[in-house]
Specification:
single chain, three-stranded antiparallel sheet, alpha+beta
């Protein structure tokens, strides 16, 4: 089912009723919907670089000259998209009962001996970018490494700069 840009903008902003959101999420993904979402996001950011792929509500892989980098919507640049952007972020590690209590009732939070919460923030605007719930000592892992060339060539059917 084709969607119009206003509906997709409302989806991105969380303004759709759950039933409509679920319907859109359940539909087969299509290149035109991706292009519309990418165009909506491009209009919302202040930087001139072309968005190639959104990563999170605030992070994008963009084309900057000959490079493909991760960039926050505030303009902060995390560097090459093939490197783990999380290593360039500000991190709050919730690994004590006191820090967990800021989020959870004492009987409902995680046991810091078994799990810690890592909150990754943009150094430029301090937007919360992602949260990892992991065992203490677990490495900071990259979520995924997209094959941008194959995605654009094989799925979108358009050239990638």
């Amino acid at each position: 089912m084709p969607y119009d840009p206003k509906t997709l903008a409302d989806l991105l902003d969380g303004r759709l009723p759950w039933a409509e959101t679920k319907e859109i999420m359940s539909q087969q993904k299509d290149p035109e919907r991706f292009r519309m979402v990418r165009d909506i996001l491009q209009e919302r950011v202040r930087f001139p670089e072309r968005i190639l792929l959104p990563l999170t509500p605030h992070l994008y892989i963009v084309q900057k000259g000959a490079d493909r980098i991760v960039k926050c919507d505030c303009g902060y640049e995390f560097g090459d998209y093939r490197r783990n952007w999380k290593t360039q972020a500000r991190v709050l590690v919730r690994d004590t009962p006191e820090l967990m209590a800021e989020l959870y009732h004492p009987d409902q939070g995680a046991d810091p001996d078994w799990e810690e919460l890592r909150e990754f923030y943009c150094p430029g605007c301090y937007a919360l970018l992602e949260v990892d719930a992991v065992p203490p000592g677990y490495p900071v892992l990259m979520d995924f490494l997209p094959d941008l060339d194959a995605f654009y060539r094989d799925w979108l059917g358009e050239p990638l700069p």
